[in-house]
From TrEMBL, chains A, B:
<dbReference type="InterPro" id="IPR009057">
    <property type="entry name" value="Homeodomain-like_sf"/>
</dbReference>
<protein>
    <submittedName>
        <fullName>TetR/AcrR family transcriptional regulator</fullName>
    </submittedName>
</protein>
<keyword id="KW-0472">Membrane</keyword>
<feature type="DNA-binding region" description="H-T-H motif">
    <location>
        <begin position="28"/>
        <end position="47"/>
    </location>
</feature>
<keyword id="KW-0238">DNA-binding</keyword>
<dbReference type="GO" id="GO:0003677">
    <property type="term" value="F:DNA binding"/>
</dbReference>
<dbReference type="InterPro" id="IPR050624">
    <property type="entry name" value="HTH-type_Tx_Regulator"/>
</dbReference>
<dbReference type="Pfam" id="PF17932">
    <property type="entry name" value="TetR_C_24"/>
</dbReference>
<dbReference type="InterPro" id="IPR036271">
    <property type="entry name" value="Tet_transcr_reg_TetR-rel_C_sf"/>
</dbReference>
<feature type="transmembrane region" description="Helical">
    <location>
        <begin position="146"/>
        <end position="166"/>
    </location>
</feature>
<dbReference type="InterPro" id="IPR041490">
    <property type="entry name" value="KstR2_TetR_C"/>
</dbReference>
<feature type="domain" description="HTH tetR-type">
    <location>
        <begin position="5"/>
        <end position="65"/>
    </location>
</feature>
<dbReference type="InterPro" id="IPR001647">
    <property type="entry name" value="HTH_TetR"/>
</dbReference>
<keyword id="KW-1133">Transmembrane helix</keyword>
<dbReference type="Pfam" id="PF00440">
    <property type="entry name" value="TetR_N"/>
</dbReference>
<keyword id="KW-0812">Transmembrane</keyword>
Amino acid sequence: MTKINDRKTEIITVAAKLFKEKGYSAVTMRDIAQAMDIKAASLYNHIKSKQEILVLIIVEIAEEFTQTMDEVVHSEESTIKKIEKIIQLHIDITLRDANALACLNNDWMHLSDTELAYFIKMREEYEENFRTIIKKGIADNEIKNLNLEVIIFSILSTLRTLYLWYGKKKSPDSKTLTSNMIQVLLNGIVIH
Amino acid sequence: MTKINDRKTEIITVAAKLFKEKGYSAVTMRDIAQAMDIKAASLYNHIKSKQEILVLIIVEIAEEFTQTMDEVVHSEESTIKKIEKIIQLHIDITLRDANALACLNNDWMHLSDTELAYFIKMREEYEENFRTIIKKGIADNEIKNLNLEVIIFSILSTLRTLYLWYGKKKSPDSKTLTSNMIQVLLNGIVIH
DNA sequence: AAATAAAACTAACAGTTGTTAGTTTGCTAT
DNA sequence: ATAGCAAACTAACAACTGTTAGTTTTATTT
C-alpha cells in the first residue's frame, strides 16, 4: 500500500522536475523512466497514463491555492494583512514544491477536457477573490485607487513566477524573501 | 524577394501564435501548415527547419531587449527615469508582439547549442545591467535599500509576463497601463 | 506563347511517441 | 520451501514526428 504510493509519488516528483526543465510535451515516458533507472513500460504498473501524471502534479496544488485564498477572503483581517497572507502562501508553496508550480504555470493547457475546465475555473475563482480583496482595500482607503487589473497582475505575476528565481545562487533565504517581498510589492521601491 | 520574405514572415507569425498557445514541442509542422491552409512539406520552400522558426522568433526580440537596455544603462538619467524607460520598453514590445514574447519566455530552452548559449548570454547581460541600475539607485538614495534580487525579480517578472495579461477583456489601454504600471512598481499600492 | 522561377503538391522515409500484452524477477507471508 | 504478488522486464503496436525527393501548379517575365 505505502510502497505503491511511494513509487507513484516518486514518478510524480521526477516527472515534475523534468516537466519544469523542458515542458510537458518535450518530456517522454522514456525520459521519465530513464531518470528512475527503469524502462518506460514499467511506469504503467503505477500510473494510468502520462496525462494522469500531469493531473496529479497540477490539481493538488491548484486546490491548495484555491482553498487558502478562500479562507483569506472570508477572514476578518485588514486588506494589507490579507495580501501579506497571500504572498506568504505563494512563497511557502514555491519553497516546498517549485517544480510542481512550474508545471502548473506552464503546462496547465495540456490538461484534457474535464481537468482543464476544472483548473480554469479554479484560476478564475482565485483571481476574482484577489480582485474582491483589492477592491475592498481601495474602498477602505487602505490601497491606492490605481487601475485594479494592473495591481492584480503586478502582484500575481511576481508571485506566480517565484519558482523561476528561487534556487539560484543569488536568491535570498526564506525570511529575507518574505519580508522584502512584502515591502517591495506593497510599499514600492522609491524613496520620496 | 519581398514575396519570399512575406511568406516566411507569415510562417513565423502563425507559428508564434501556435507556440504561445501550446508551446514549441506540442506544435507540429502539420499544425503550422494547416493554420496556413497548406501542406507541411510546403513550409520547407520558405524555412530550413522547425528550429529555424524558433530562432527567428526569439533572437530578434532578445536582441532588441539587450540593445535598448544597453542604451538605458549608459544614459545619463536618474535611476527612476531609467526604470521607467525599461517598463516602457517591455510594454511596447508586448503590445507589438505578444506571441513572440510568449515564445521567448516559455520556449527558449528548446533553442539548440549556439543559439541557446547566445540567448542565455543576452539574458544574463540584461539582468546584470538591471542590477547595475538598481545598485546605483540605492547608492544615490533614490531607491530603498531592500534586497537587490527581490527588487529585480519583482519588477522583471511582472514585465516579462505582461503578455499573459494583455489582450484580456479587463486589461487597460496602453496609456493607462504604462502610467499605472510605473506607479505600482515604483511607489507601491499602500496608502500610508 | 514560351520560358523561368516560386511555391504548392504527393508520397514516402526513418525515428520517436504513448501504450499494451505477455513474461520474468524478487520479495513477503504462510 | 512455496505460493502469491508487486514491480520490473522484453517486444511490439499504430500513430505521429520532422524532413526529403520528385512532381505539378501558379504566377511573372521575356
